[in-house]
Amino acid sequence: MKISIFKCFIFILLISQSAISQTYIVKAKTLNVREETTKNSTVIGKLNENDTIKSISNEGDWIKIMISEKEGFVNKNYLEEINPTEEITKGGFKNGFKKVFGTAFIIILLILLGYRKMKGKVSDGRYSKGYKEYEISTKDYIIDGIYALIISSFIALIFGIIAWIKTF
To answer: What number of CA atoms fall less than 13 Å from residue 65's CA on the CB side?
Structure first.
């Protein structure tokens, strides 16, 4: 049980990491991606004007990014930050639905399977652990998947409508 909680915690942490990263647009004609946070460090790549990038972290005037499967740094002075709420508003219903559906589906599925696993322990003094566990069958996985699909579709529908209303 502790391992399952740990796996859920790591998974949610990874999902939230993507929400923390900020998106930027390159405003310079060409922008050097450097190995370190100094203007004299080795150039490992170049970005063109209007390229969009996602930050990994901020280090003073430098933004850490991934380019060609390498981590590099670009100077913040040549970037323009994109406000995430603007993206949702521009996309309307479809964009709002897409942003919520995947995350909601995964989280609800984990909650349902975790609940089923906890409920699967029946008190029984004949066992050394003090309870008997039953295995989760394929049918149980399918049923939980269908429930998660229905619930996450409903949640995404609501968020899609909210994003659509914001376009007015």
So the answer is: 27
